[in-house]
Amino acid sequence: MTRLATVAPAWLLPRRLAIALVALAMAACGGDNPQSNGGQEEQATVGCHDGTLDATGALYQVCYPSGWNGDMVVYAHGYVVAGQPLALPNDQIEGQSIVQIANGLGYAYATTSYRANGLVADEAVEDVAQLVAEVRSRFTPDPSRTFLVGVSEGGLVAALSAERHPDLFDGALAACGPVGSFAGQIDYLGDFRVLFDYFFPDVIPGGVTDVPDSVRAQWTSVLVPKVAAALASDPAATLELLTVAGAPHDLADLPFAATTAVDVLWYDIFALPDASQRLGGQPYDNIGRVYQGSSDDAALNAGVERAAADPAGRAGLEAFETSGTLSIPVSTLHTTGDPIIPVSQETGYAGKVAAQGATSLLSQQTADRYGHCAFTGAEVLQAFESVTARAAAVRRID
Prior knowledge:
The protein is α/β, with parallel strands linked by helices. The protein has helices spanning about 100-105, 120-140, 155-165, 180-200, 215, 220-235, 235-245, 255-280, 295-305, 310-315, 345-355, 375-395; strands at about 40-45, 45-50, 60-65, 70-75, 90-95, 95, 110-115, 140, 145-150, 170-175, 330-335, 360-370. Strands 2-3-7-4-9-10-11-12 form an eight-stranded mixed sheet, with helices on both faces. α2 (about 120-140) crosses α3 (about 155-165), α4 (about 180-200) packs antiparallel against α7 (about 235-245) and α6 (about 220-235) crosses α8 (about 255-280). It is elongated and about 65 Å long. It starts with about 40 loop residues before the first strand and ends with a helix.
C-alpha cells in the first residue's frame, strides 16, 4: 500500500505477508476486465483475471499459474484508511508480490479489495465468501482445496471466515490479527492515547474521543515531529508510558519508542473516529480501569482522561469478535514485540478455542522480534504448511 499522509506506515500495516522465499516463475499477470459470459464457465487459464463482485461492488482478482496444483490461496489484506479509493492489494515481501509467491508455489491466487476501506472486517468476511463463490461459478475446474491467508485486519477476516464459513475453506492462516478480543484491541489503542496525553500533556490537541480535523491534517508535518521530540526529552516518562500501556519495550534500548508511539497513535487519530462512525457510536471505554506500572499509580488513575463508550458503539464490536468455534485447521502467527496488535491476542484466542473443545484444530506460532507482521518468509511458510498438512490429515480421516 502506498504511503500517504493519511495512511498508516506501510512497513507496519497490514498488507505484509510472505508465504515463502522461493524461486518464482510465473506468466505475467495482465488483468482482464471481463464482460458477461452468458453464465458459461471459463476454463482457468494462466494469468490474472480481474472483476467486480456484483453484490457489493468489491474488486477482485484471480491468478492461475502454469503447473497449477489444483488448490487456491485466498488473500485477505489488512487495514486501509477509510476514504481511499478501492484498489486490489499488491502486497510484497522482500520485493516479491504475494500473487507471485502463491503462484510460484503452484497455487491459484484470489483476492479482493473488500467493498469499502476502514473498519470492515465483518463485511470483508462476506466479501471473501462471495469471492470464493465467484471463482467457482466463473472458472472451471473448481479448486480442489481453498486456503485463506490474512494479515492484520485480514488476519481477523481469516479467523472469522474459518469460523463462519468452514464449508468454503479447508484451512486458514490468521497472521498478526486481533483475534483474541476485538474490544480489547480497541481499548489498547484508546488506552495508549489517554496515557500519552497524561505523560505528555498538550502535545496533541483534543482527546481520545475528540480528534479535531486539524490534528489529522497536520499529523505528519507537525505532530509526528512533536511527539518524537516529547518522547526524546523525557526518557523516564517514555518508559512509564510504554510500561503502563503494555507496549513492547526494552529497558536497555528505547530508541524505537517514537516509532511505537507514532504508529499506535496513528490508529487513534485516524482509525478510531472511523470505527465510531461505522459502529454508530464511540466504542472505547476505560471507566473504572485501574492503570498500573507508573511511578505514581494513584496520581495516574486520578488524572488520566476517562471515556465512556456509547452503548451502540460497544455493542457493535460483537460483529468483530471471534467465537473460537473451529471445524477446519487454523494457524496463527504473531511477533512477540508487536506494538500495534499485542501478541496477547493469541493467548485470548487459544482460550476461546479451548472453551469450544477445538484445540486440536489450532496451531500457534510466534516470532521473537519487534514489529507488526514482521515475519520472515520461512516463518510464514512454516505456519502455512501447518495448515495444509493438517487439512490433508483431516481429509484422509473423512
